[in-house]
Design a protein that fits this description.
The complex is a heterodimer of chains A (254) and B (953). Chain A is α/β, with parallel strands linked by helices and 254 residues long. Helices cover 20% and strands 26% of the residues of chain A. With 953 residues, chain B is α+β, with helices and mostly antiparallel strands. Chain B is built from 30 helices and 41 strands. In chain B, α12 packs parallel to α13. The chains are: A alpha/beta (254), B alpha+beta (953).
Chain lengths: 254, 953
């Protein structure tokens, strides 16, 4: 899948990957590093610069919403940040979506994008059709290596997992609100499941109690994942099983 | 107008309520049939759009919101909220969201939680809430029908009380100290009185409070100074003259050289008094917040990359009737400590690198310890010194009435009255504030904006600014300190230990740039004063002074109300040290000889019971609450192996992103050995921490130590003083010199004494925690812990082991015994042996797996290595079966290899025990070849898995 052409004379230039930061974001450095290892130029930018209209999302070819506890996860995980996206940043988000700028939301980033209503289904921005509920255990869960099955591209089209379809990768999971729930009528495009193609709900195969580990939006550009691919990008740190996701994202915009 | 919105869950069961219910059931409150929760948002102002406020407050899929409660008013309901004098931690977030949604007219918001109980009466519900659901210092129960007329904090800040000490008798001075919770000994009170007589004026409350905090054992280390221990440790480290030491005993943490111009810093901090005496949850949050700030505020600022938590309590399974009045039930302390740790360290985004939970029957005022580790450029790693004219900039959260008297209270005994009398000393944790500081610090450092920095820990501004001002003098205006509480007196603003605050010393020309960086990362910053050349600490409260105008021509103006005006010559050199006698205790050590099992099944049962001992059992239930891989630099987690439950001996990260240089930490802590011999305790614990790193591949010359000592009160017990001295001067002090691993940081806490209501004194066990920090040029050299391959030879390498004994072991504790003799180590031989081992690992990759045999003995490590790999082993013991299976040699390396000969090692230091097997079972033979037992790993894991899980679930 190719979304944005970014080629100049002499070969492809490195795409610009944006990693927004807001109070509580704490996985931005590793996400920026993952984009860089995948061939992008990553930039961490405080969200307040976008709120002040000093920067625009659509100036970047890729956007990675990193994990953490944005705004202290007050009221719900990712909720306050989602309010920013759906209100003062609404036009910027819609523009980026319109331009099909690939977005990746990991953990808190996933909670933000789902709370903003960017996915699943054809929801309207600001009207979420799904939520990341409190884990069934009622507590924060960290697991160093959880098996994540990536669905075949033939079943779920996703530019971020283009080369990974049908594979099982092991990634760390670390969250307290990671259980996907959605409105009955919503069509969810599940791209990653815990443990098996159908998804496990037993603990600890699924740390959250949901079979779903990740979803993609309808046009295959916005991926949300509760596990952390950015923590598995080199051999010193448990392997490169997460790197493929970033490489696919970068390849899609070259 | 105040609008009230009630939010309750609509989708499925509420996991939070379910968990709360199961915890209350576990705590013995079994009559409660159900709990329902409801959150209330109170919003004050001329609010334009209440529907928008509803959208802000609730998630439409999960919750419903309305202006009427959905709880059953006929059932007991309690509602908990922050007191009106406080600002809710969520205020900033909610106000930000409201502004984003265009909600106009909002002035203030407050959140509360309502609990509806089924199965108990109203009185019992209120009692339960008071005990478990709120901290009366800062929170309150809302009485139905009694609503606030405004949500905005009320009160007038400021005000100084003059106290004339001159005519007070010693008795009156003591009463004065008790009434103000100063915990000052008589000699200090007399010194203060003498000073103010000489000055010819009454003292001000903030001055007395500042002196009490500054001279407290917590801040001034009076016990250790009197016993000469600090000086001894300093000199020992100097004598070692280790080339990696960059900074020791001068800053908030110790610093060692890393690679490529970078340095690592480490610190261990106890936070015992509020954790055990007042509020475990807030106490633990403060512990982590404080030690992380110590790391951030080292040199010109560091980046934290790891942390630990170590908790020692009484047995959480103890009957409620056995809990002395004034002490918390240990299960409550444990639950709250785990909750406090994950609520603080996870949002901080700092990987947990070790968690450990211990029991000892005398831990009513037990141990609450945490470490933090950081990285900073070596050329920015030395403690900075302010210059006259530099600005005093307070950054971080606003100041409140939380944490008053933390420094002085922590230096006193814990008594049956502590929970109520000293409640004000607890702080409210707000990790997001601290994370913002953490984020901005490297940028400020990189822009040369920080001349020096200091965190606001014990005694708040009094300590942080007070210490920084020692170099030249300092002037502050308390009116410029951002507050979250109304009605604070000057001394409270000055002494408050509100969390997540630091002082930056910023050169004048750098102020605009620094403020810009801080604003970008949403760190609240206030210029509150200036460094002077007066060599005095001068503090005023002058609201009339215009901060903006003053900043362009800053001078120290003694206008408004003067709160403090003290010369540093008095503060720094006039503290009388306590008189402490030392006397060797006349202890009758009791020999113990357990019965040796006669059958295989008896052996298996004994091993299962041993592995299920609380101190060495599976504690992954807690470890899985803590993020161990955030920052993406984790190479080795401390819980790992095949199913993510095997305890490892250490944890390793690569703190320089994109480089393979490793930083590893290994922790060793013991509360049993000191009952037999404090000096041997010191040597064994130091050796253990050191050996864990070397066994895993770290060079013996690449290690420094952090030592934390927790001891019962020594000022009134010559025996306790003797034990403490022996631990330091004949224990880990000389051990560090012999091992060549300098102690570069640590913390002493000498207030481990609990006085029960009937006056019984319970001394906490003498506790030593040594955390070894090592560097490794390339993490590819790390040797894993789990068995690797069937057929590998299992070797026990124990250089320096002179006697292997069971005294002080976890095994003896099973029988509630200590025994009379500890294992004995020749540390010189240990060092030489570990050097030999390290050279071998560097020369050829022949060591396939390793672990250090210490607490729990050989059988614990065989089991863990098997459990983590799914492989088993067959071993023959070299001597007495009980001793070799359960004895704690301190620093023996259990490794597996494909080597056939062992000419690299001294033959006397080594035993070839057996082989790794494909069958997941442990088979053990006695030295006479008789099989003692064989059982599957699954069988051994039963009790091991349950002990801790049952306590915390």
């Amino acid at each position: 899948m190719r979304v944005v052409q970014n080629v100049c004379g002499g070969g492809p230039v490195k795409p610009k990957a944006l990693v927004p930061w807001m109070p509580g974001t704490n996985c931005h450095l590793e996400m920026a590093r993952a984009f860089e290892l995948a061939g992008a130029i990553a930039e961490i930018v405080p969200l307040r610069r976008f709120l002040a209209q000093r920067r625009k999302f659509s100036d970047h070819q890729l956007i990675g919403w990193a994990g953490g506890f944005s705004w202290g996860d007050h009221l719900r995980a990712g909720w306050i940040a989602a309010i920013d996206l759906t209100n003062p940043l609404r036009d910027q988000v819609l523009e980026a979506r319109e331009k099909k700028v690939p977005m990746l939301g990991v953990c808190n980033g996933c909670q933000i994008l789902v709370s903003a209503g960017l996915l699943p289904g054809l929801s309207e921005l600001g009207h979420p059709t799904a939520a990341l509920d409190t884990n069934s255990s009622g507590r924060f869960e960290h697991r160093n290596a959880v098996s994540i099955y990536i669905q075949e591209q033939s079943k779920v089209k996703c530019l971020w997992t283009e080369q990974l379809g049908g594979q099982t990768i092991c990634l760390p999971v670390a969250n307290g609100e990671g259980r996907f729930v959605w409105l009955e009528k919503t069509v969810c495009r599940v791209v990653a499941t815990y443990g098996s193609p159908r998804g496990e709900i037993s603990y600890p195969a699924s740390p959250s109690g949901s079979p779903v580990a990740g979803m993609i939006n309808d046009d295959g550009t916005i991926l949300v994942l509760m596990p952390h691919p950015e923590r598995r990008i080199d051999m010193d740190h448990g392997g490169v099983q997460g790197l493929g996701i970033f490489q696919a994202g970068v390849a899609a915009v070259l | 107008m105040i609008v009230k919105l009630y939010k309750s869950r609509t989708l499925g069961t509420d996991p939070i309520a379910s968990r709360l219910l199961s915890q209350l059931h576990a705590g013995g409150y079994r009559t409660i049939k159900a709990i329902r929760l409801e959150q209330v948002l109170r919003a004050e102002g001329d609010i334009s759009d209440i529907d928008a406020l509803k959208r802000l407050f609730h998630h439409p899929l999960l919750e419903t919101v309305g202006q009427r409660s959905r709880l059953n008013s006929k059932k007991p309901i309690v509602e908990v909220t922050y007191q009106r004098s406080m600002t809710d931690p969520e205020l900033d977030s909610i106000m930000h969201a409201a502004a984003s949604m265009g909600i106009c007219g909002l002035v203030w918001v407050r959140l509360s939680t309502r609990y509806e109980f089924t199965g108990i009466g109203r009185k019992e519900a209120s009692k339960l809430a008071a005990q478990f659901f709120y901290n009366p210092l800062v929170q309150t129960l809302l009485i139905p029908g009694k609503e606030w007329t405004t949500l905005v904090p009320q009160g007038e800040p400021g005000g100084v009380e003059q106290i004339d000490l001159a005519l007070m008798s010693l008795r009156q001075l003591r009463k004065f100290s008790d009434d103000r919770l100063l915990h000052m000994p008589s000699e200090q009170l007399l010194a203060v009185q003498k000073f103010f007589i000489r000055e010819g004026r009454p003292s001000r409350d903030a001055e007395v409070e500042m002196i009490a905090a500054k001279w407290s054992d917590h801040c001034y280390h009076t016990t250790w100074k009197r016993l000469g221990l600090l000086e001894y440790l300093r000199k020992t480290t100097e004598k070692i003259n280790h080339p990696l030491v960059v900074s020791a005993y001068v800053d908030n943490s110790g610093v060692m050289r890393f690679y490529d111009g970078w340095a690592l810093n480490s610190k261990g901090e106890t936070h015992i008094f509020p954790t055990f005496g007042v509020d475990p949850y807030c106490g633990i949050m403060t512990k982590h917040g404080g030690v992380i700030r110590d790391i951030i505020s080292t040199g010109q600022g560091a980046w934290p990359w790891g942390g630990t938590t170590v908790m020692a309590t009484c047995d959480p399974r103890i009957a409620r009737s056995r809990v002395p009045k004034g002490a918390f039930h240990p299960q409550f302390v444990l639950h709250e400590s785990i909750r406090g740790t994950h609520d603080y360290t996870n949002p901080m985004g700092i990987p947990m690198m070790w968690s450990q939970y211990l029991v000892h029957p005398d831990n009513w005022k037990g141990l609450a310890l945490g470490h933090s580790f950081g990285i900073l450029p070596e050329n920015k790693a030395k403690k900075g010194v302010p210059l006259p004219g530099d600005f005093v900039v307070l950054i971080g959260g606003p100041t409140g009435n939380d944490g008053i008297h933390g420094a002085t209270s922590s230096s006193g005994n814990m008594t049956a009255k502590t929970r109520t009398a000293d409640a004000a000393s607890v702080q409210i944790g707000m990790p997001i504030e601290e994370r913002k500081i953490m984020e901005a610090t490297p940028l400020l450092r990189g822009a040369d904006c920080i001349r020096a920095c200091q965190d606001c820990g014990a005694a708040g501004l009094a300590s942080a600014v007070g210490e920084l001002g020692e170099a030249c003098g300092v002037w502050l205006n308390l009116a410029w300190v951002p507050l979250k509480c109304a009605g604070l007196k000057d001394y409270q603003i000055f002494l408050s230990e509100s969390q997540e605050r630091c002082i930056l010393v910023i050169p004048r020309e750098k102020l605009p740039l620094a403020l810009e960086i801080l604003a970008d990362y949403e760190v609240r910053a206030a210029v509150i004063g200036i460094f002077t050349d007066t060599r005095r600490c001068q503090v005023v409260n002058s609201p009339e002074m215009n901060q903006g105008l003053w900043s362009s021509h800053p001078t120290a103006q003694m206008s408004g109300t003067i709160a403090v005006d003290l010369p540093y010559s008095f503060l720094n050199s006039s503290c009388p040290l306590p008189k402490i006698k030392t006397r060797k205790p006349a202890v009758q050590l009791k020999r113990f000889q357990p019965r040796v099992p006669q059958t295989e099944s008896q052996w298996v049962r004994l091993v299962c019971e041993h592995l299920a001992h609380y101190n060495i059992c599976d504690q992954s239930e807690a470890a899985h609450r803590y993020d161990q891989t955030v920052q993406g630099n984790t190479v080795r987690t401390y819980i790992g192996g095949a199913d993510d439950r095997m305890p490892d001996d250490l944890s390793v990260v690569t703190p320089l992103r994109g480089h393979s240089h490793g930083a590893g930490t290994a922790n060793a802590v013991n509360q049993f050995y000191g009952e037999i011999s404090p000096s041997v305790q010191g040597r064994l614990v130091a050796a253990q921490a050191f050996a864990k790193l070397v066994a895993a591949g770290f060079g013996p010359d690449d290690i420094t130590l952090c030592a934390n000592v927790y001891s019962p009160r020594a000022t009134d017990s010559p025996e306790n003083a003797w034990r403490l001295k022996a631990l330091v001067k004949r224990g880990y002090g000389p051990a560090s010199a012999i091992l060549g691993a300098p102690v570069i940081t640590g913390k002493d806490s000498s207030s481990g004494t609990f006085i029960t209501k009937n006056g019984r004194r319970i001394d906490a066990p003498l506790t030593l925690d040594i955390n070894a920090l090592g560097r490794m040029p390339e993490v590819g050299r790390l040797i894993p812990k789990p068995f690797r391959k069937p057929g590998d030879t299992i070797v026990l390498y124990h250089p320096g082991l002179r006697k292997l004994r069971l005294g002080g072991s976890v095994f003896y504790d099973l029988f509630h015994e200590r025994g009379s003799e500890l294992s004995q180590l020749d540390l010189r031989q240990l060092r030489l042996g570990l050097e030999r081992y390290h050279r071998l690992t560097e020369a050829i990759k022949c060591i396939r797996s390793q672990s250090v045999v210490c607490e729990g003995g050989l059988i614990r490590r065989l089991f863990e290595k098997g459990f983590g790999s799914g492989l088993g082993c067959s071993v023959r013991l070299p001597g007495d079966s009980l001793q070799w299976l359960f004895g704690e040699p301190g620093a023996a390396v259990l490794f597996t290899t494909d080597l056939q000969t062992f000419t690299y090692f001294e033959a006397n230091d080594l035993h070839v025990l057996g082989q790794v097997t494909a069958e997941p079972a442990i088979e053990v033979f006695a030295s006479n070849q008789k099989r003692l037992f064989k059982a599957s790993l699954e069988e051994f894991s039963c009790g091991w898995s349950k002990t801790f899980a049952e306590v915390v679930q």
